[in-house]
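Risk register update: the risk of archive-format incompatibility is retired. Evidence:
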Amino acid sequence: MTLHGEYVPSPAQWVREQVAAYERTGGEEANTLRDTGLPVIIVTMRGNKSGKVRKVALMRVAHDGEYALVASKGGAPTHPVWYYNLRANADEVTIQDGPEPFEAEVREVTGPERAAWWERAVGAYPPYAEYQTKTDREIPVLVASRKG
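Archived output:
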């Protein structure tokens, strides 16, 4: 399953290249964050303003068939654009973790559920803890669940 509509690749060349290589090879290539060796997933969503299809590689934080999508932006003072896309179009999302993408719906988690997912996220990608110290905002955590 893929989202229909015009695809607009990321303005960042390395993101465009990673998404293209991951999709072309069914996750056999470009499946880690640069040279870290840490796995990523591809998240496809609809732009909240343009309505166009957008794709981004995010750290793979999986638990019981669900995925955390951590809007860290490296600890920047603002949320990443993809966060707003997912909030606006939470039911128009696909996740690709390996060869086949699947339809997902996304929700933002808070309280104890966020704390549990945050701990998993930091376990999968320790720099998230440092990113949180760099910003006054609480870094949002969204959870993607497979549809039906």
